[in-house]
Amino acid sequence: NEDELVHDGETVQEAFDRHIVDHKRCVEANEKFRKLLKCREKLKDIQDARAANREEENDVEDDDPQLTGQIKDAMNDVRDIDTGSGLTLQERESMLNVDQKRIFDHVKAHLLRQIEYENKSKQEKGQSESVKPLHMFISGVGGTGKSFLIEAIKALVKSLWSTLTKQTCVVCAPTGLAAYNVGGVTAHRLFQLPIEHDGQCASYWSIPKASHKVMKTELQDLKMVIIDEVSMVSSLNLTYIHMRMNDLFESDKWFGGKNVLFVGDILQLPPVRGQPVFDKVTASTLKYRLGSMSAVNIWRDTVTYDELTINERQKTDQKFSEMLDKVRRGFSDDETLATLSERVFSTPIEKKFKIVQQGGNAPVCLFPKVDMCKDFNKTMLANLPSPTIKIRATNLIDGTGSIHGLVNGALGTVQAISETRITVKFDRITDPCEIEKVKRKFMVMKNVFVYRSQFPLILAFAVTIHKCQGLSLDNATIDLSENVFSAGMAYVALSRVRTLSGVHLTCLNPKSLMVSSRSIKEINRLRQLYRPDLPQYAIPTDCGSRKRTLTGTIDEPQAKNQKNMPPPKVARDKRSRPSD
Ligand SMILES: Nc1ncnc2c1ncn2[C@@H]1O[C@H](COP(=O)(O)OP(=O)(O)OP(=O)(O)O)[C@@H](O)[C@H]1O
Prior knowledge:
The chain is α/β, with parallel strands linked by helices and 580 residues long. It folds into two domains: 35-308, Rossmann fold; 318-514 and 552-572, no CATH class. It is built from 20 helices and 17 strands. The protein has helices spanning 2-5, 12-59, 65-80, 89-95, 98-118, 122-127, 146-160, 176-181, 187-191, 209-218, 235-248, 283-290, 298-302, 318-329, 334-341, 349-358, 370-382, 465-468, 489-495, 517-530; strands at 135-140, 169-173, 185-186, 224-227, 259-263, 304-308, 364-367, 394-397, 411-417, 421-426, 433-436, 438-445, 448-454, 457-459, 462-464, 476-480, 503-508. The chain is elongated. It starts with a helix and ends in a 50-residue tail after the last helix. Adenosine-5'-triphosphate binds at residues 95-97, 100, 140, 142-148, 265, 312-313, 470, 472, 495.
């Protein structure tokens, strides 16, 4: 109808123009409307996604905030700790000896193959074989530079995956001091392993969801785990590490499908509790600890082997190095015993400590048992000039690890003490650290906790031989009495020292030079399989059970004919543990 289309007084042309403008507005409004409809749909998607997220967050609500905090601290340590020599990868690589370089190159070739595979498309991956994780045992006598090699491999992994923001390589060891030595944390701390209680190994427990998420986030980029001083890891703890890694990386492959390097010397100290790492975990143990699984020997089923043979620690004292080799293999002949007996001193140990200290470097006193260390530390503390707040003491961080990136095992000197804090100058940290009391909660078994509040320090004029494994020392006073209770213990203590002149023995009982024939057999098995170019070791018949007792000669000229000093008093408490 023309009247409806053309208003009064309007020409047809004017009406037409007006309709075009109206029409355009309608089209625009329609478009806007459609957009709004789309937005509404999107908003619904966003709201649904948020709701799902909230559900997930509720799912992992903090079931044990204290444990989560503890795990966060541990993960921070993993990130922060570095021995900090400041060397580049190229510098480290150039310092490796031929033996170390061979193993370094083997690891590098493997990692490059892994990267090549990771960079393949899904389709290409389907057509090629995946690169199996490297599970290798790097062995070598004490001082062949295993820890030195670890530093180079750590730097290598970091540089190969330098674009990743989280940890790509973590290092751990069974004791704090050994871990500190290689810029790592303890295996218990890293993997939150069950803690032994009352001499009993605890059963495996799964990490609650929130804590699990913290660990998983921090370790999501992990390419390699290095476990140093593996001789002290028990086969049960190895199983727990494997299980923890399976849980963390949601994989049922060995060690969650990650590369693992085991480093150490199985002729050094065995685990304080439990069976050696190469032992089978029996079906009954697994049933008792885990409620399932049949007997496993993860070690035999997984590890390949290589060995370092060039001694770097005792390289300036070849005779000492050869003597140590005999002690290590359980063939301490009369010449060895005669040489060692010349290192026995008769002066009171506190006096000897001062004499050696005046010569330049204070010795570290190595005792087989915790109580012996405690007694000696007490004596040394009582002998300090009084009153004083500045004492010459070496201290160990005990069990915490979240302060200034320190871990259990760091050695330092106390500079000042107040009621609330202790100032300590740690050996590898430039500025003195203020140490405050810490409160810790330990899960000893599922839902059973122990609380401790204390300064995380203990005196360390003396440390147990277990704690010193991994160290290199200029001087040590060593107790090789009948208190030496384990195979490899005497060898570990003696081989810490760079030269024979740095060895000072409180006494020498030839029975203390024990070795484990099972460890020798395991080295022979591995050598035969992976290093047939190396000879098989002979198995000593007595494995350290020599009957002859030795009254050592004395290195103090004025006391040439005196008898050996009796070993320091030892509390014979049945509950005392060889190492804390
Ligand atoms: N290639 C090298 N060049 C120079 N020094 C080295 C080299 N390798 C190792 N060292 C030095 O030799 C000493 C012993 O090395 P390291 O502690 O790594 O031996 P280890 O095999 O781990 O000993 P242990 O089994 O007793 O723990 C250290 O002081 C280390 O710095």
